[in-house]
Design a protein that fits this description.
This protein is mostly beta strands. About 5% of the residues lie in helices and about 45% in strands. The strands form 5 sheets. A 5-stranded mixed β-sheet has the order 6-10-9-8-7, with no helix packed on it. Strands 15, 16, 17, 18 and 19 form a 5-stranded antiparallel β-sheet that branches. The structure holds beta-D-mannopyranose (BMA). Beta-D-mannopyranose binds next to strand 7.
């Protein structure tokens, strides 16, 4: 098995749908799986990414410390649920550049492409932009050139190349708590120079689908299904009480990932559980990773900018739900 093959059914972290539940996703009964004080230095651990690794799982975790400095930490798990997270943040060596400045790192994603694990994150370099790094073993890490100029967030790599080029989704933004944002795709021959930027998905009109009318951002690494790339994303509405982040799903064309085939008009999961409603930033569900065995999916999402949680679903039910509740421009 290569690390990017679907997981074998017995190694998927999973919990069956609870009786009486009829939504396409359901929350893990043991949420949150990672508490805010999981390592000694942490104020909060959330918006983190997980991949199959070495017969189990590895992850890159956003841990804000008690000075609320944002950084990313490696972690390991046998079952994808119980995690050992390193107490020290990831230290990067120069990768394809010596310029590896970083004022802060947050919201990592991890993607296996060809021969290594690529990590993208929001990197502080004169404001937020997309940092890129890689590792072979989750012990030694290498940092590459930032993908874009500031300001940008939510960089998510596809797990394969298209016409010989790497592909990344991202969300151009501003220097603060951006009140706008659409998802773009960019391509690179070498993980250093990025171009051919195209708009993939825009926010929706308020009256059509208000939960995603202010800004949207790519979430989990897309995975291939018979219908195309399935990706979970976040959508944001501005309420009288601040931003509210919900989970949606999009299906992108297999050969042309800039083309959206279907996209959820209804959210798949919106803040409703106590751990999503109460925390450092209330009303946030923020997906950063999804594991699949081809039939089932386990989503990792940050809850209220405080903890890491999981939700489960069946791929065919999610696909059908998105097709039947699709927003079309
Ligand atoms: C975004 C990022 C995320 C965070 C979200 C909600 O701008 O900072 O890390 O989860 O806001 O606070």
């Amino acid at each position: 098995m290569t690390p990017h093959s679907p997981l074998s059914p017995h190694s998927m972290p999973w919990e069956d749908r609870p009786t009486g539940c009829n939504t396409p996703l359901w929350r893990f009964s043991r949420n949150p799986i990672i508490d805010r004080y999981h390592i000694p230095s942490s104020n909060s651990i959330f918006n983190s990414a997980v991949v199959p690794f070495d017969g189990g799982f590895a992850g890159v975790f956003r841990c804000d410390n008690k000075a609320v400095q944002m950084n990313i930490f490696a972690g390991f798990s046998k079952d994808g649920i119980n995690w050992d997270i390193n107490h020290e943040p990831i230290v990067f060596k120069p990768g394809n550049t010596d310029m590896i400045d970083s004022d802060y790192k947050y919201d990592p994603r991890v993607t296996w492409i060809e021969d290594r694990y690529w990590i993208t994150w929001c990197n502080g370099y004169n404001g937020p932009t997309i940092g890129i790094g890689y590792t072979f073993d989750f012990k030694e890490f290498f940092q590459c050139e930032n993908a874009f100029l500031p300001f940008n967030r939510n960089g998510v790599l596809f797990p394969q190349k298209f016409d010989g080029k790497f592909a990344m989704l991202s969300r151009p933004s501003d220097n603060g708590h951006t009140p706008f944002g659409d998802i773009f795709i960019s391509f690179s021959p070498d993980m250093k120079f990025w171009g051919e930027h195209r708009c993939v998905m825009k926010v929706t009109p308020f009256e059509e689908s208000a939960w995603q009318c202010l800004k949207i951002g790519a979430g989990s690494v897309p995975f291939l299904t018979d219908d195309g790339w399935l990706m979970f994303y976040h959508g944001v509405i501005r309420t009288c009480n601040g931003y509210r982040y919900s989970l949606g799903a999009a299906i992108l064309d297999k050969d042309n990932p800039a083309k959206v085939l279907y996209r959820s008009r209804d959210y798949l999961l919106a803040p409703a559980a106590p751990y999503e409603l109460v925390g450092d930033v209330p009303n946030v569900g923020f997906p950063c990773a999804a594991l699949t065995d081809g039939e089932r999916v386990a989503i990792y999402y940050g809850a209220a900018d405080t903890t890491v949680c999981m939700a489960f679903g069946y791929v065919n039910e999610i696909i059908n739900f998105v097709k039947e509740n699709s927003y079309t421009e």
